[in-house]
Amino acid sequence: MWQTVFADFTAGPKADPADLDRAETELGFPLPESYRSFCFACGIGLACGSLRIAIPSPTESADLGTRSELIAHSIASVLETREGHRFEVEGDDPSVVERACFFGETEAGEFLFWDVVVGADQTERREYEIWVMGADLESVRFGGADLPDLMRRLQGPAVRGILGMGAEPLPSSFLGQVS
User: Fold this and answer.
1) Centroid of chain to Cα 99
2) Is the pTM of this model over 0.85?
3) pLDDT confidence of residue 81
């Protein structure tokens, strides 16, 4: 599937099933199918010339659990210094930020997160909407219904609604990290 999302594709070091199981246990929710597919097919690397998606990995700098916690902690630390801070959330549900699980970032400093809504059956794998928090830590925009949708939208005119009106479509590429 990912070779249809990226015209220029070179895989990087990939996650193994045990790493994904560990991440699900640590995070407390099932990882989305599109993300699991990404971890097995693409691995560690640079998507669309700008995005780094964390995957469950023994490499701490790329590990989903480590990156998610670090991003959330960093954002919380900055927001503590901003009295009366409010997010400008696209749409009508500002609580998406409260359910955020960060899993990636762009070279320009935006953060990608899932809106993790866990149902009664926590073993069911489902997709979570993907949102993008601006580098300003103020704007929050809808990114996509799943990971392939986000990548495709970033490669076309929808990028302006995700990364801002000045953004140009990103390249259709995945360049795996050399191990």
Assistant:
1) 14
2) yes
3) 80
Residues constituting the chain? 179
Characterise 111 by phi-psi region: left (phi > 0), alpha (psi -120 to 50), beta (else): beta
pLDDT interval class at 122 (50, 70, 90): low
The Cα 169–Cα 162 span in angstroms is 11
Q: Hey, what are 42's tokens? A: 């693409």
Return mean pLDDT, the chain: 91
DSSP letters along the chain, please? Answer: -HHHH-SEEE--S---HHHHHHHHHHHTSPPPHHHHHHHHHT-SEEETTTEEE-BS-SSGGGBHHHHHHHHHHHHHHHHHTSTT---EESSS-GGGGGGEEEEEEETTS-EEEEE----S-TTS-----EEEE-TTSSEEEEEESSHHHHHHHHTSTTHHHHH-TT--PPPSEEEEPP-
Neighbours of 52 (CB within 10 A): 19
Q: What is the pLDDT of residues 136-151, one digit of tens each?
A: 888 999 999 999 999 9
The answer for residues whose C-beta is within 8 angstroms of residue 19's C-beta and 6 or more apart is 39, 55, 56, 57, 58
Tens of pLDDT along 75-91?
A: 888 877 877 767 788 88
| Residue 131: both structure tokens together | 């949102």
